[in-house]
């Protein structure tokens, strides 16, 4: 019994540790990103084209004039689309003052099924409603989930918050986030500055773990083994390249173009 009590105490301490490490959801002093659009090329080891993604930050949406809007769209192309069909579209609405999420809608089309997730933030509660539609027969199934914690980001707000911080060498940022229907813990560590792809960059290591929404315990995320991100070391601070070792191998996201809106 004593051993069991000790294990429970250790587990409780471990759960509390990551909560105490969470970076406050207050924007850093780096200037906000002006409205821009960025295009990225997806590849395997930088050699085989696998797809493309487009990020649009700050383009005003007339339907939601009081929100800061971020859109992400793209998916697999060429040979990769035959092996693994995947199209994604994300629309994130953020508070323009804090850049914290209000509503995020994500649609992931994998060919045989379409996964649509709508996530809302209200105080310390994050609610998600996920609907899976079978393409062949049109049948649908919907399930809801809830995560009680704050602050929690979506992917877009996490990107904007990370770039806003000072990012001194050795700094570590810890951000809970909910990209679709379940929470994760993101750890970003500043490894240093270096020249990369002909640009001054900030080199970051990126780690991701699952969070049990009920116990708040951390669980391994086996699909992502490791990831390295290079941010441009300038006013924009946009991703120049992301290299991730995932379950299908070395996948890279490389900046292909940028334009102001």
UniProtKB/TrEMBL annotation:
Keywords: Signal. Residues 1-16 form the signal peptide. InterPro entries: DUF3108. This is DUF3108 domain-containing protein.
